[in-house]
Design goal:
Elements (H helix, E strand, L loop, with lengths): L1 E3 L7 H10 L3 E4 L6 E5 L3 H11 L8 E3 L3 H5 L7 H10 L4 E6 L14 E5 L4 H12 L5 E2 L14 H8 L9 E4 L11 E4 L6 E4 L5 H8 L4 E2 L25 E5 L1 H21 L7 E5 L5 H4 L4 E4 L4 H17 L4 E5 L8 H11 L2
Parallel strand pairs: 1-8, 2-8, 4-6, 5-9, 10-11, 12-15, 13-14, 13-15
Antiparallel strand pairs: 2-3, 3-7, 4-7, 5-6, 9-10
Helix pairs in contact: 1-5
Bound molecules: threonylcarbamoyladenylate and magnesium ion.
Length: about 350
């Protein structure tokens, strides 16, 4: 494990780019979440990502590029709708799926004939991608830097925690420090490889914002009713983003009722074994009178606005998980579109 910090080491970006150019693994910050990167044009380097994550090798990865021109190297075609979206939202939290140039990034694409491309809006990521390009590395394949199916990392420390106890024979993961990720949930993914654009994963950009730029309706392929034409891909699996504890989504009425049921039990447990870890954590926007009553329950507040909630979501779930609780009860997010990304991640975390 090695942490490279551009704020402390003037040559951190250079070292990181060399690491990637040499075929090594490097976790990099982006504005969404940290990615676990390898050069996209090197199938052996990309294979190390799948091994480190424990991810099935037919699940395609996103290739990160410093600009649209670099993206074109990986694309057999860049349809007009992808062009419009890239022009409007790059650099930014948007991934477009386009037909893949057959000679490029086969392993990164999981063997599919399409490829996911994204230009991230993070100064460290962009500096790194430009330094890579200067060394002949056109793109960096990077899934979120967590073990398969687990919570995505939004801070360098999360990545260090994910990979500190590596099994024998796995490559060392280096981490490039970039601070806390501003967006906090993964990019919005739009499949532009078909006749009409399809939303595969919601993120900070809302469907309405995407449609306004696409100039046509965008269909949403939801994980509970997956589009049969979409490839099997982890970001679109119903069960994903899972904490160790069992997570459930409850509306405020059911949450209050559930807490009334467990309260006597918890009190008894506390009397029997003082200092015992609480079994239940609650993550909710509402602050109720029961908070004072339920001393045995860990409580963390979910921010009241969607952008802050997304920013904090994965760090808060990690914090709740780290308390050792068995159950995490989460208040369902509001129904409006700004919360689509947060609701999507919580729904999948609850499905595990
Ligand atoms: O914000 C993000 O997108 C982060 C940062 C690191 O850029 N990356 C990320 O990667 O979330 P990952 O691998 O955890 O999720 C990428 C998802 C895949 O699981 C899959 O759903 C979709 O992108 N994807 C990638 N290539 C695809 C393709 N050719 N066809 C369909 N889906 C694809
Ligand atoms: Mg992921």
């Amino acid at each position: 494990m090695r942490l490279l910090d551009p704020a402390q080491q003037p040559d951190a970006i250079e070292q990181a780019a060399r690491r990637l150019a040499d075929g090594g693994l490097l976790a990099l910050p982006t504005e969404t979440v940290y990615g676990l990167g390898a050069r996209a044009d090197d199938d052996a380097a990309v294979a190390r990502i799948f091994a480190a994550k424990g991810r099935p090798s037919d699940h395609p990865l996103i290739v990160h590029v410093p600009n649209t021109e670099a993206a074109l190297h990986f694309a057999r075609a860049f349809p007009p709708v992808a062009q419009r979206l890239a022009r409007a939202f790059w650099p930014g939290p948007l991934t477009v799926i386009v037909p893949r140039e057959p000679s490029m990034a086969t392993a990164a694409a999981g063997g599919h004939d399409t490829i996911g491309l994204r230009c991230p809006d993070h100064p460290v990521a962009l500096a790194l991608l430009n330094a890579c390009a200067a060394q002949g590395v056109l793109g960096v394949a990077a899934p979120s830097a967590n073990r398969f199916g687990r919570i995505s990392p939004t801070r360098a420390e999360h990545v260090l925690n994910e990979f500190e106890d590596r099994g024998q024979g796995l490559d060392e993961v280096w981490v490039l420090q970039g601070g806390a990720c501003e967006v906090g949930i993964e990019s919005t993914i739009i499949d532009c490889s078909r006749e009409h654009p399809v939303l595969l994963r919601p993120g900070r950009l809302t469907l309405a914002e995407i449609e306004a730029v696409a100039g046509e309706p965008v269909q949403w392929s939801k994980p509970e009713a997956p589009d049969p034409k979409a490839p099997k891909a982890s970001g679109t699996l119903l069960s994903h983003y899972a904490p160790r504890a069992k997570l459930s989504l409850l509306d405020d009425v059911h949450l209050a009722a559930a807490l009334d049921v467990i309260e006597p039990e918890l009190t008894a447990a506390e009397i029997r074994e003082p200092g015992q870890a609480p079994r239940v954590a609650v993550y909710s926007r509402s602050v109720w009178a029961w908070r004072a009553k339920h001393r045995g329950v860990v409580h963390l507040s979910m921010p009241g606005d969607a952008a802050t909630a997304a920013h904090d979501l994965f760090a808060d779930l990690r914090e709740l998980d780290a308390t050792g609780v068995d159950l995490i009860w989460v208040e369902v997010p509001p129904a409006d579109a700004a919360w689509d990304g947060v609701r999507d991640r919580l729904t999948r975390a609850a499905a595990s």
